[in-house]
Write a structure and sequence with these properties.
The protein is about 45% helix and about 15% strand. The chain is α/β, with parallel strands linked by helices and about 650 residues long. It has three domains: about 120 residues, no CATH class; about 120 residues, Rossmann fold, CATH 3.40.50.720; about 240 residues, Rossmann fold, CATH 3.40.50.720. Strand 9, helix 12 and strand 10 form a beta-alpha-beta unit. Helix 11 runs parallel beside helix 12. This is FlaA1/EpsC-like NDP-sugar epimerase.
Length: about 650
């Protein structure tokens, strides 16, 4: 291929965009670019130390210049420069470890001065007392003031150059004056192109009445929002409290709604996952924020113990729960993350969300149907997973009421085959995703998921690993959720349909639910179902009213009546299940009567609908005990690589 090269006299300004070019000049090595700046810092600090020695010596002699031994002062200043620079390099002061003028660098400056001062006292004694000892001690303190002052001045000048103009950005009042607000304001004020300019803070803590963040003052509490917005001509209010509950966000939303300002929010802690808040994270308040937001604690050490460096497989990886599982599991550095789904578009979307590629060229993306036993064996043989999260299932209650055979084939037989395959391939830990419909079930969906909980309990009793089920309620933002349906109805011009004025449901954001599912997988359990605390139930009619009020046009709310097998209020625990939380405050652990998979032979997908539902109901509620273990689930041989896993990394 012919490449047009630039003539020796050409300049980049003369070049035509789009021309092919040969390699340009070699880039300047990093050390040649970095060393001048670091050397300048060292020289500046050395000059500050020399100046400090002079000032301290003059103070010691009451300003009498004739008493100063200038030659000795010059010699000691040179020695001090060498000692201070060497100590600074040791403590990282001149190695580019920290940003200029940050707290960590000032701490390193203090450590450097703490080493330099006694070293100079010793060297001054050896050199014949060039300056008074009190001057050396005083010089150490003066040096700190001068060097820190220089850094503060430079940092302030840099910040002022980066600070956006209040006339160009959106003037915002920030609700909260904690760490989240500090991160938000710093992010806003350190880019000239920031779309937001903070003008005031609000916080309910009386101790913060005189608090300022980068010269942005606290001007009152939430009750002063209207007055502060008017006084500062604010155009938006940002709720900068990552740990804010849904109840707090609803209250702040009600306060801001009459003020004709945009209301925005920073993501909850669970979405930030330990990183700092960025300007790009600021977004409008969503229905998920208003309904299901709360802080969820997680034992990172316990979770990493069973995920880091392990091979993990997720079924139903293209769905709402499965895809979020994959995104959060990837953060724990598994040795392999295998994503299985029969929906190739779902796999494409989840790969794109994790690594931004979406090339579908990774063997860890597996197109397979959990109904296909032979295919499952192929997948487990190839990938040899240590941990399995089973999220693949059919979940829409009305459809499964009409077609119970599909619930049998996917939810029950598919799960049984996953359990069987996992035990044959010696999976160490399996988490079966269940639903609150399995608590005191009265629908086909509830029957099928309760049966899978019982099958999982039977597998746990037989397998050498830990097999458990995790049960939770409605997940906000999932495909087919009530918010998705209401949004579509508003888009179509209404009406919003609600089954009953008093119907209530539990809600949790998908991020919070998955975070607790991962935590639940780390708990020790004996054939139990782990039930996630979903908070307080919410009236669906209230949700519909809030969405209708936020619409640009009048939206009617119509009540259609409860559907067959639908409950007025969901429960998370069955009548015989205690709310026992021995390991985590948000996770209950309830025993499950096991059910031997051999009884599935009683089920025939081709049976009449009413007969099939009756058998499912009986299996869900029966006191059946596990029979003699089926040969297919008693294989106990360990793979060599599994047996080699250290005891601390196994269940």
């Amino acid at each position: 291929m012919q490449v047009r090269r630039r003539a020796s006299g050409d300049t980049s300004a003369d070049a035509t965009p789009g021309d092919w070019r040969g390699p340009g000049p070699h880039p300047v090595p990093w050390h040649r670019r970095a060393l001048p700046g670091r050397a300048a810092r060292a020289v500046t600090d050395a000059a500050a130390l020399a100046t400090a020695l002079l000032i301290a010596t003059l103070l010691r002699h009451d300003g009498d210049v004739a008493e100063v031994h200038f030659l000795g002062l010059v010699v000691l200043s040179a020695v001090a420069a060498v000692v201070h620079t060497a100590a600074g390099i040791h403590f990282g002061l001149y190695t580019g470890r920290w940003a200029y003028g940050c707290f960590e660098e000032i701490a390193a400056l203090v450590r450097t001065a703490a080493v330099t001062t006694p070293a100079l006292l010793l060297l001054d004694t050896l050199l014949g007392r060039l300056v008074p000892r009190s001057a050396i001690i005083g010089a150490g303190l003066i040096t700190l003031v001068l060097a820190a002052g220089m850094r503060y001045t430079v940092r302030s000048m840099q910040d002022s150059r980066l600070r956006p103009s209040p006339e160009q950005g959106t003037r915002v009042v920030v609700m909260g004056a904690g760490e989240g607000a500090t991160q938000v304001i710093r992010a806003m004020l350190r880019s000239p192109r920031s779309p937001y300019v903070p003008v005031a803070l609000l916080d309910d803590d009386p101790a913060k009445r005189t608090f300022r963040v980068m010269d942005v003052p606290v001007c009152g509490t939430r009750d002063d929002m209207a007055e502060v917005v008017r006084k500062f001509r604010a155009e938006a209010v940002v709720i900068a409290i990552p740990s804010a509950s849904a109840d707090l966000i609803r209250k702040l939303t009600d306060l801001a709604q009459p003020l004709n300002v945009d209301l925005k929010v920073v993501p909850p802690v669970v979405e930030l996952f330990g990183r700092t808040v960025r300007v790009e994270d600021i977004r409008p308040v969503s229905h998920e924020d208003l309904l299901g937001r709360r802080e969820v604690g997680i034992d990172l050490a316990a979770v990493a113990g069973y995920l880091e460096g392990r091979r993990v497989l997720v079924t139903g990886a293209g769905g709402s729960i499965g895809s979020e599982l994959c995104r959060q599991l990837a953060r724990f550095n598994p040795a392999k993350l295998v994503m299985l789904d029969r929906d190739e578009s779902g796999l494409h979307a989840v790969q794109l969300s994790i690594d931004g590629r979406g090339q579908l060229d990774d063997r860890n993306l597996v197109v397979a149907d959990i109904r296909d036993q032979q295919r499952l064996d192929e997948v487990f043989t190839e990938h040899k997973p240590h941990v399995v999260f089973h999220a693949a299932a059919l979940k829409h209650l009305p459809l499964l009421e009409m077609h119970p055979s599909e619930a049998l084939k996917t939810n029950i037989i598919g799960t049984y085959q996953i359990l069987q395959t996992a035990m044959r391939h010696n999976v160490d830990r399996l988490v079966n995703i269940s639903t609150d419909k399995a608590a005191d079930p009265c629908s086909v969906l509830g029957y099928s998921k309760r049966i899978t909980e019982r099958l999982t309990a039977a597998a746990d009793a037989t397998a050498s690993g830990t097999y458990c089920s995790v049960r939770f309620g409605n997940v906000l933002g999932s495909r087919g959720s009530v918010l998705t349906a209401f949004a579509a109805q508003v888009e179509a011009g209404g009406p919003i349909t609600v089954t009953h004025p008093d119907v209530t449901r539990y809600f949790m954001t998908v991020q919070e639910a998955v975070r607790l599912v991962i935590q639940a997988g780390a708990l020790e359990s004996k054939g139990e179902v782990l039930i996630l605390d979903m908070g307080e139930p919410v009236r669906i009619a209230d949700v519909a009213k809030r969405i209708a009020d936020a619409a640009d046009q009048h939206i009617q709310i119509v009540y259609t009546g409860l559907r067959p097998a639908e409950k007025l209020a969901e429960v998370l625990l069955g009548p015989d299940e205690p709310d026992h939380r021995p390991n985590h405050p948000l996770i209950s652990q309830a025993p499950v009567p096991p059910l031997d998979g051999a009884v599935l032979s009683l089920l025939d997908p081709s049976s009449p609908r009413e007969d099939l539902i009756a058998v499912l109901h009986w299996l869900a509620d029966s006191p059946a005990l596990p029979k003699k273990p089926h040969p297919v689930i008693t294989t106990k041989q360990r793979r060599p690589e599994t047996a080699a896993v250290p005891p601390g990394r196994r269940s």
